[in-house]
C-alpha cells in the first residue's frame, strides 16, 4: 500500500499497474478531475502536483506518491473560494462547466506575464461552449453578473444557479458516481466500413480475468429502432439494432464486453476473434444513388431502388419562368463537411436495478423522456419500469439527442442484475457517434438588375451515413428557413438524404440549416457581385418581411410567423460596426489581402413537428418556490432562464426558487432539449405554471382575507391584500389547515413558432501564398426578442459563433478511401483553442416577441449559421476567389489561390 496526499488528505491506496493519475484520483471519489480525451489534449483533467499544473491523464499514478496533489476540490480554503474560483464565478466563465475545473487549475498557476498572452498560456485547455470570451473576462477580473433583486429578474444578468458547485468541483456529471458492484462495458467496433459478421469467437475474451459477459448480435433483442430522439419516432427510420450482424460503417459496434474493470473490458474486446465477410462499400451520396451501387439496407427502408432514404421536393410559383425574367444568373455547388460535436463530456450512462424493482438509468442525454420511451420499446417493457434522468450534462450541441449508450447498459444490467457503466472514449466519439450531415448544395439564383430575386432553385445531397436518424428532419430543415429567408415568387428545391458507409449523421447545432445557409448566403453574395449591389443592400431588398408568406418550397401553410422582426436592425448594426472599424489592421506585406463579408440566417424557433414541455411549481412551507421542468441543462443555461421567468412572474428573487430538471420520475414530461425549444417551449411552460401559481396564491389570499382579488398582489415574499401584508410562509400555513397545497402544473406545445434572425460580419486578412487567415473584426447581431439574461445570451452566441469559426477554419474529420477516420484525436482533429477563436462583438436587436414567453425567442442555436458564409464572402471580397467548400484550411486555400494566380 502506498500513500498519497490529495487536497490535504492522506490516502492509503495502490494504483493498478499502468494506471494514470486521473483515473486513480477518480477511484478515490475525487470527481472534480474530468476526462475529455485521456490523451493530454483537452486539459479537463488538470491537477497540481507540488503546485505545478499537469494533465493528470498523462501522469502515471505512482508518480504522485509522496507529492502534494491538489485538485479543484482543494482550492477553496475554509469554505472561501480561491480568488480564481471567485473570478470564474463573477465572470460566469463557463456554460456546461465540464472544462471549468481544469481551466481554473491552469489559470491559478499563470504568472502576470502569462496572463498577457492567454492564447499561449491556455493552449492546453479546451472549452467547447464559451468561445473563451468569458474565460478571458475571468482572467481580466471582469464581473459580468448583476445582483439578484426581487421583481427584477427579467433581463438581469444573473449567475447560473449551480455556479458554486461548478467552480468548486462539486457539480456532479453523469460519470461522477461511486456505486457498489459496478461493472464496466466496452464495445468492439468494426474495422470495416461494410462487412457481414460470419462468426464471433468469444472464448478468449471470456477467459480474460474480470470479464463477466460478452454479448453479440445473437444475444440482443431483434427490434429495429432509430438512435435519433424525437417526439414522433416515425420521423426517423427504424434501421438500427442493439448489435447487428452487418457492420455498415467503420466504427459500428460489433460486440459488447462487460467486466469488473474498464481495463478488463477493453482487454476482453481485444481478445474477441471476429470473422468478417467484407462487402463492397460506398461513401459518396452521389455515387450511392447510381445503379449498381452497394445497397446498405433492405428495400423497405429506402424510398427508391437505391440508397435514398428520403427525397423532399417542392415548388412555389414557376421557377422556369422566373429564370427567364432574370437579368443575371448564378449557379454553383457548395459543400460542407462532416464535423463532430466534441461536447467535452463524452457519451455515457450508468444503469442499475433499484430497490423499487425498476431500472434506473443516469445518462448524459438531451432527451431523457424520449429515451425512456425508446428503451422501453427496445426491451419490451413498460416505460413506467424505467427511470431515466440526467445529472449535470457536459455539453450536447445536438449530439446527445441520440440513444447511443443507454441501450447497451440497460440490456447488460437487465441480464446481469448488477449496475453497469459505459463511458465513451474521445476516439469513440469521433468514429462511433453521429456527426453533422455532410451536404452538397447546388444553388441557382436569377435576379433582376435592381437585385430583385426572380427564381431560387436548390438541390441538396445529404450524406446521412450508415443510418438514417435525423436524415429526413435535417434535410427538411436544410430546405426550410435558409430558403424561406428570401422573398422570391418562384422557388424550387429537391433534396435527397442518402445512405452511405460513413459514420451516421445526426442532430448538430443548426440542424441542416447551417449547411444550406452556407450555400444560399454565398450565392446571394455572388448575385450581389454580378449586379454590383452592396451585400447588405442586397439582403435588405430581398429578405422576407412582415406580411409575407413565410414559405420555402412548399405550398402548405406554415405555422411560423413574426412574433417580432429585427433583421433590419441586425443588418444595420453589423454594417455600422464594420464601417466604424475596431482599429485592427491587416499584417504588413503585399501578400496579405483584406476583405469583408456578411451573411444572415433565419431560424424558425422550434421544429415543425410536435414538441411538448411541462412545468410544475409549488409554494414551499418556508415561502420559497420549487420548480420542476423536464428540460435538460447541458450548458445552454436553461435552468437559469427558467428560474428567471418564474421569478419575474412571482416578483421574487431567483434565489427563492429551487429547480430540478430532466428526470422522468421527478419532473413533468419534456420532449427534449433540442431544436431551439428550451425557451420557447420549456420556458413557455414555466411562464404558464408561474402565472397559475400567482393566480392560485392571490386567489387563496383573497378568499382568506375577504379582500377583493383585484386588491391583492404579490410582493416578493408576501402577498398584499388591501392594507394587509401576509408572508408567503404564513399563507402556506393557512393553506395547510384546509388542505390547499399551492401546487400547479402547466404544459406548453410548440405552435405557432416565432422567427429569429442572426447576422454575422467578418473583416479578415488572408495571405495569398500561405493561405493563412486572420480575422481582424468579427461582429454578430441577433434578433432574439427580449433577452431573459443578456450575459447568458451573449455567452451562447459567443459559443455558437466560435463553433462557426471552427467549422469554417479549423475542424476537419479526414477519412481515407475505405471510410476510416484517420485523425480521431483532438490533437489531429482540432476544435478551436483560445488562440483560434477571434473576439466577436455581440449585439441584440431591440425587439420584444409577441409569441415567445415574456418577449423572448430562441437564441443559442442559430448563431453558428451565418459565420462560415460570412467568412467565405470575406475571402471572395479579399481575393476574388470563391471558396465554396468547407473548411478553409491553409492547404485548401493555398491550392486554389495558387491556381487563381
Ligand atoms: S483528459 Fe487529460 S488532457 Fe484531456
Ligand atoms: S463550459 Fe467549457 S466545455 Fe462546456
Structure description:
The chain is of the alpha+beta class. It contains 25 helices and 31 strands. The strands form 7 sheets. It has a 7-stranded mixed beta sheet, sandwiched between helices. A 5-stranded mixed beta sheet has the order 2-1-5-3-4, covered by helices on one side. A 5-stranded mixed beta sheet has the order 12-20-19-18-13, sandwiched between helices. A hairpin with a 2-residue loop joins strand 3 (46-49) and strand 4 (52-55). The longest helix is centred in the C-terminal third of the chain and has 28 residues, at 678-705. It is globular. The protein starts with a strand and ends with a helix. The mean pLDDT is 96. One FE2/S2 (inorganic) cluster binds at residues 35-38, 40-45, 55, 57.
Class from helix and strand fractions? alpha+beta
First and last CA, distance = 68 Å
Shape: globular
Identify the bound ligands. FE2/S2 (inorganic) cluster
Q: Report helical residue fraction.
A: 25-40%
Largest sheet: 7 strands, mixed
Q: Strands of the biggest beta sheet: in what spatial order?
A: 8-10-6-17-14-15-16
Mean pLDDT across all residues, rounded?
Answer: 96
Low-confidence stretches: none
Find the count of extended strands (DSSP E, 2+ residues): 31
Strand-residue proportion: 15-25%
Number of discrete helical segments = 25
Rg over alpha carbons: 27 Å
